Amino acid sequence: MTLSRRNKFFKAAIILSSLFLALSIVGSFVVMPAYPIAVASATRRVSGLLQSLISHFLEPASYVPLFSMACAVIYAFVASILIYSSFAQTRCQEILFFSFFAFSFAFEACRILPPLSQHYTFPSFYLIVGARAMLFGRYFGLFSLFTVSACAAGLEVEKQRILLSIIILTTLLIVSGIPVDSLSWDSSLCMIRAYSALFNMLELCLVCVTTFSFFITAYSRNSVEYVFIGVGSLLVALGRSLLFSSDTWITPIPALTALTVGTWFICARLHRMYLWL
Questions:
Q1: Are 236 and 260 in contact (CB under 8 A)?
Q2: Sign of the C-alpha dihedral computed for residues 213, 136, 41 and 197 taken in this order
Q3: What angle do CA 149, 246, 15 make, to 5 degrees?
Q4: b/e map of 131-146 (b: 16 or more CB within 10 Å)?
Q5: CB of 232 within 8 A of CB of 264?
Q6: DSSP string covering 237-270
Q7: In angstroms, rounded to a whole number, what is the distance separating the alpha carbons of residues 213 and 238?
Q8: Which of 54, 78, 147, 154 has the greatest CB tally within 10 Å of its CB?
């Protein structure tokens, strides 16, 4: 893929993430009073490593889902701009798929639908569509991050559009087959879905394989840069998990810290390796 065609994907990510951000801002002001009702109506606490440790001591905070959703959409917008400005003239085969990972955070804007349903009356069909769109963003992002490690390990990327099509089709197949409860959500305002333990295990396996793939690449190519990129991939995956499962004020700050440091590790090291190519 040529630089000009790749940059069109970068520009599209900036435009789409800005639209998600604008809709989130407008929608949040409209439905902000409904957030305490929506969180109080949650059928269960959100699951997660840190959440399981603190759920016995802290109750869900009403506006944490709003804050974490806003942070996710802002991250997608800012990261897309920084990636475009840094790599517009740099040939880097991995950065395209990392930009897809960053853009996938914009789909978290769909978490505004449960409080919106408390403010307005509309068919539960829209909640299901929003839940599937959010799940699409999450798994599309994970598969994109995994593809970054595959490209670093030597995967041929001349046909990047084919790889992108495979990621999208695989994600659509997974998301379309997940049963979603249209009437209940957890304390992070994510709709309740079936087989959550199975898909949590899938996410964990993808993250582990991605990280180890970078470390193996660092060893095989004798490049310390891929060690930092591997650590960065682990940090962005950890920050993503913490941010998406936040329902108390303790988790967003470490989540944003891990996301910021991990993104910097990945982008800075990739830019250094490909700067002179």
A1: no
A2: negative
A3: 60
A4: bbebbbbbbbbbbbbb
A5: yes
A6: HHHHHHHHT--STTSHHHHHHHHHHHHHHHHHHH
A7: 17
A8: 147
Tracing tokens 């889902």 back to the chain, one arrives at: 65
For 82-107, letters b (16+ CB in 10 Å) and e give: ebbeebeeeebbbbbbbbbbbbbbbb
R_g of the chain computed on alpha carbons: 19
Task: Compute the distance between CA of residue 155 and CA of residue 73 in angstroms, rounded to an integer.
Answer: 30
pLDDT for residue 41: 87
Q: Which residue has the tokens 């963003």?
A: 137
Packed helices 252-274 and 64-87: angle between N→C axes, nearest 10 degrees = 10
Report the chain (277 residues): mean pLDDT per 10 consecutive residues.
85 95 90 89 80 73 93 96 91 90 96 87 86 95 93 74 89 90 87 84 91 92 91 95 90 94 94 75
By the 8 A CB rule, do 76 and 20 touch? yes
Q: Residue 31 is encoded by which pair of tokens?
A: 């439905």
pLDDT at 66: 94
CB 65 within 8 A of CB 189: yes
The residue written with tokens 């690449």 in the block is 217
- Report the alpha-carbon angle 253-210-6, nearest 5: 85
